[in-house]
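User: New here, any thoughts?
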Amino acid sequence: MVIQNSTDFPNQVIAIIPAAGSGTRMGLAKAKQFMDLCGKPILAVTLSHFQECSLVDRIVVAVSRGDVDYCRREIVDRYELSKVYKVIAGGKRRQDSVRKGIEAIEDSCRLVLIHDGARPLVTTGLIEKVIKAAKDFRAVITGLPVKETVKEIDGKGRVLRSIDRRDLWLIQTPQVFRWKDIHLAHQKTMKHGWDEATDDAFLIEKMGIPVKIIKGEDDNIKITTPQDLDIARFLISKGSGLDI
């Protein structure tokens, strides 16, 4: 397969896919990213959308140290994911895996796209949309407006107040950043101990860099429980527009 770079992005766009999580919350010894999703491992389904996206040039995958060879053989080679040029050992936490992925790529890369390996229902359309938005904004993330009523409670479960949901969003991946920004952000994380980060945009925010949010997709769920896996299978079976 010949990979074409977009003329709009003469410098490379590299996707980092952290997938070093365990299967603890799934109640299984097997890592969730290798579980079957309608005939393919979850991670293979996720990676296939980045393989198909013309705006993504290369892919780095971060898995648990003991899964590196397995991922290369049973995921990358088996499913002919030619854009995956590095499979690396991730860290204990998601942010450690992302940092190692950033350190594994060259500074000639202009944009870094980060996406959870356990979000296999992402579409190439959303990937393209977030990359194109990065032409105009320094940092771009995806998410959905909060639909339910939100309340703040105390340590005893008592309601303190209701929160206006109009300005609240639930954050997803993919997220796209300038390589220099996200590289520096993770360096500062190590130096200052910013351990409370739940996503990479948090680190960018800590640096005072504005972050643009664009609307994500309802089906772009993260698989963390057996129920999530059932939902993903249902969404695929009903025809979500995904070709796996």
